[in-house]
Design brief:
This protein has 6 helices and 2 strands; from the N terminus they run αααββααα. The protein has 130 residues and is mainly α. The model has no long low-confidence stretch (mean pLDDT 92).
């Protein structure tokens, strides 16, 4: 679920995205993406009508932004503090982002000096997102 929310956020901005684009980005079959989008819609995290765009709800966007924040903080920590090569930080952060507690996220941000960008130059969302 978290990977789908993050992917929808990264692909869509405010205009939404398609289940096909989601499936392609995640490397899953189109029907698998469609089924997950239906579940996310049922849970109130996205809006989607058949053949229409997939859009995050306010709740879905808050969750997605929190996941993106954790991922990007982890990438920066892995690169700057642990010295992992840039080409490895994304994959490692993908695995770790799902297990990071709020307290550990906060501590990472503090250790890193509340950074604005990750090692790829992408913006790190702030703590509070409406």
């Amino acid at each position: 679920m978290q990977d789908y929310l993050k992917t929808i956020y990264m692909l869509s901005e405010d205009k939404g995205t398609t289940t096909g684009a989601i499936a392609e980005r995640l490397g899953v079959a189109h029907p698998s993406a469609t089924n997950m989008v239906k579940r996310l819609a049922r849970d109130g995290l996205v809006r989607h009508a058949p053949y229409g765009p997939v859009q995050l709800t306010a709740v879905g966007k808050r969750l997605a932004v929190a996941i993106v924040r954790r991922h990007r903080l982890l990438e920066l920590y892995l690169k700057n503090v642990l010295g992992l090569p840039l080409e490895r930080v994304h994959g490692e952060a993908e695995q770790l982002e799902h297990a990071l507690s709020d307290a550990l996220e906060e501590r990472l941000a503090q250790i890193l000096g509340d950074p604005d960008v990750d090692p790829h130059g992408e913006p790190i969302p702030g703590r509070r997102i409406a």
